[in-house]
Write a structure and sequence with these properties.
- By secondary structure, the chain is an alpha/beta fold.
- The protein has a single domain, classed as Glycoside hydrolase/deacetylase (TIM Barrel).
- Helices cover about 35% and strands about 15% of the residues.
- The protein is built from 11 helices and 11 strands.
- Strands 3, 4, 5, 8, 9 and 10 form a 6-stranded parallel beta sheet that branches. It has a 3-stranded parallel beta sheet with strand order 6-7-11, with no helix packed on it. A two-stranded antiparallel ribbon has the order 1-2.
- Strand 6, helix 7 and strand 7 form a beta-alpha-beta unit.
- The longest helix is centred in the middle third of the chain and has 19 residues.
- It binds zinc ion (ZN).
- The site of zinc ion has 7 residues, from loops.
Length: about 300
């Protein structure tokens, strides 16, 4: 049995260029709108009006101050990663590591703009995708497949972006299963990890999800500022070895800010890995009943 450090904060709340060039015009501009504080998100194939959900942003970098050490005793999920091109992790041993994550995609123009620039930093990221978007757009499916085949991690952000704690048991299980099926339909494997929309989770959701639950420890607040410099600063100012950074691949400013942050952080000795890679490098065998906010090195 492996002892791990986990942050418990349940209370707080290609392919070809073809697909990448197929820009789907959003229903609305990504700019500010009246849905900013709404807990709903569009499940259409076009870009949601806004991810932008207060609950998801209430857990910020302060989360790490509530670190608790726990011993894993529960079910472990398969270690088979939803990752189409496993990397040799030896190259990252002894380095400072960050897992950059993007929620609510895929959104082809923005997601592909990120994918196009990852190699420069030898970076791979984790995408928490919405099943409804995959079912709604061939372009989005192709984009996710490209991300997967590059070695990025594909994880679930549910099907409909509902607050899972508000659903009936039947709707909850249905949503989770539909999301898993939508991902598997494209890449052939189910995701091994999930990030609940708004960070909203309870024991019922935990049981229904039955995946590694990945939260975050650095909130870029990209949805709020939609400014690449601010996104970059928010990441760089809060970055630490083992951090999980929250962004959304809906906004070009999010990707631009993340790339600028990578440029700066790489200069400070950081490398950029997926969540699964980070856990593996830190010797953590994840289980389905712990919420993971970061993977700091063990002392
Ligand atoms: Zn979300």
């Amino acid at each position: 049995m492996k002892k791990i450090t986990a942050v418990l904060l349940s209370a707080a709340i290609a392919f070809t260029a073809t697909a990448c060039s197929r820009v789907i015009v959003p229903k609305k501009a990504d700019g500010g709108n009246s849905n900013e504080n709404s807990k709903t998100i569009s499940t259409s194939a076009t870009v949601p009006s806004s991810e932008t959900t207060q609950p998801e942003t209430t857990v910020s970098t302060t989360a790490e101050t509530t670190t608790t050490t726990t011993t894993t005793t529960t079910t472990t999920t398969t270690t088979t990663q939803a990752n189409g091109a496993a990397r040799n992790l030896d190259q990252f041993k002894g380095k400072k590591l960050i897992a950059i994550t993007f929620d609510d995609g895929p959104y082809t123009p923005v997601t592909c703009s990120l994918l196009d620039r990852l190699d420069k930093y030898n970076a791979r990221v984790t995408f928490f995708v919405l099943g409804s978007r995959l079912d709604g757009s061939q372009s989005y499916r192709e984009t996710m497949k490209r991300a997967y085949e590059m070695g990025n991690q594909i994880a679930s952000h549910t099907y409909s972006h509902s607050d899972l704690t508000s659903l009936s048991k039947e709707a909850l299980y249905n949503d989770v299963a539909k999301a898993n099926a939508a991902v598997k339909n494209v890449i052939g494997v189910e995701p091994t990890a999930i990030r609940p929309p708004y960070g909203a989770i309870n024991s019922t959701v935990e049981a229904a999800a039955n995946k590694n639950i990945i939260m975050w420890s650095v909130d870029s607040l990209d949805w709020k500022y939609r400014n690449a410099d601010t996104v970059c600063s928010n990441i760089c100012n809060s970055a630490f070895d083992g951090a999980i950074v929250l962004l959304h691949d809906l906004y070009q400013t999010s990707v631009d800010g993340a790339i600028r942050a990578m440029d700066i952080l790489q200069g400070k000795g950081y490398a950029f890995v997926t969540v699964d890679e980070l856990a593996q490098l830190r010797g953590v065998q994840m289980n389905t009943s712990t919420k993971y906010f970061q993977f700091k090195p063990e002392n």
